[in-house]
Structures are given as structure tokens and as C-alpha cells.
Amino acid sequence: METTLIILKPDAVQRGLSGRIISRFEDKGLQIVGMKLMRISGELAADHYGVHKERPFYNSLVSFMTSSPVVVLAVMGNNAIAVSRKMMGATFGSNAEPGTIRGDFGVSNSFNLIHGSDSPEAAKEELERFFTREELVECGRAIDTWVYDMSGDEPE
Ligand code: IDP
Ligand code: MG
């Protein structure tokens, strides 16, 4: 089981798409173990997007991410990091495949609706950046026995 950090970016929240995007993760069978509406500070955005500091789009990315509230989610499930990235689609809305979140809801390249951790290392770091331990609430779900094959040692 993995947990990944998902951010519904300011465009998703302003456009009233939060519920529909969250539903996609629920529909997939992934479990939400953390969720909050928050405003990202300049410092937090700089931390989160530090790897892109030298890129030409960095300043506009930081101002976009701090411009309006976001919804941050901790999403848990089998292979949750890669599964979520696949559900998000390619970075640019203009070439993300239909059926993906970016492909279905947007056409912009910079206002691309959603962030998702891209590796286990990034997920760990990003979850710690956005959530305290107490804010992550794991509990079993009755439906897990039908979302997963539970007959072996691990959910399959
Ligand atoms: P990702 O979000 O699919 O992982 P990254 O390459 O890590 O994509 O870029 C981080 C974010 O920076 C993107 O989600 C997007 O908001 C923004 N971004 C990336 N490349 C460009 C660009 O060429 N122009 C404008 N914004 C960009
Ligand atoms: Mg990235």
C-alpha cells in the first residue's frame, strides 16, 4: 500500500471541480486518508517546487499556486503513486489524453488542475510537508474486501 500527495490546484477549486476530481479517486477504489482546504504560502510553494527554481515558468507557477486556496489530499491504495499519475494524465492539458483528469477538465498548460507525487521518495517528503501525523487518518473500510482480493497475505 502506498500513500501519495495530491493537490487540487487553485484553478480546480475556483472552477468548482474539486468534488468531481475527488470522486474519481474514490471511484477508482483509492482511499482518502487526509484532506484539507488551505492557502499555500510563498514559502511552502517555494519548498514544494524547489526543483523547478531555474525553469522559466517558476515565478508564474509560484504565484499561481499561492493565488487562491487549494485542496490537499493524501490518497492511499495499491500502487497509489503511479495509479494517480496515470489518472492525472500528461502535464499539459492541451495534450493530456481524454479520460484523464487533465485531459477531461482543462486545455491550459500551466493551469493544469492537479499535482501528484511522482515517486515514493517525493510522496514521503510531500506528505510530511503538507500534513501533520494527526491529520492523516487511516481506518479500514468495509468495502475493502471487494476493492481488493484479501485472500492472501497482502491486498491484491
Ligand atoms: P507534473 O505536474 O506533471 O509533475 P512538472 O514537470 O513537475 O509536471 O511541472 C510542475 C508544474 O509546473 C506543472 O504541473 C505545471 O503547473 C507547471 N509547468 C511545467 N512545465 C510548464 C511549462 O512549460 N509552462 C508553464 N507551466 C509549466
Ligand atoms: Mg512533477
Task: Give me the secondary-structure topology.
Elements lengths: L1 E7 L1 H5 L3 H11 L2 E8 L3 H7 L9 H8 L4 E8 L2 H9 L12 H5 L8 E3 L3 H11 L13 H4 L9
Antiparallel strand pairs: 1-3, 1-4, 2-3
The structure holds inosine-5'-diphosphate and magnesium ion.
Inosine-5'-diphosphate (IDP) binds next to loops.
Give the overall silhouette: globular
- Quickly name the level 1 CATH class: Alpha Beta
The biggest sheet, with number of strands, parallel, antiparallel or mixed sense and barrel status, is:
4 strands, antiparallel
Number of separate helices: 8
Number of domains: 1
Using only C-alpha atoms, the radius of gyration works out to 16 Å
User: Poorly predicted ranges (pLDDT <50, ≥5 residues)?
Assistant: none
Q: What ligand species are in this complex? A: inosine-5'-diphosphate, magnesium ion
User: Order of strands across the biggest sheet?
Assistant: 2-3-1-4
Structural features, described:
By secondary structure, the protein is α+β, with helices and mostly antiparallel strands. The chain has a single domain, classed as Alpha-Beta Plaits. It is 38% helix and 17% strand. The protein has helices at 10-14, 18-28, 42-48, 58-65, 80-88, 101-105, 120-130, 144-147, and strands at 2-8, 31-38, 70-77, 114-116. It has a four-stranded antiparallel sheet. The model has no long low-confidence stretch (mean pLDDT 97). The structure holds inosine-5'-diphosphate and magnesium ion.
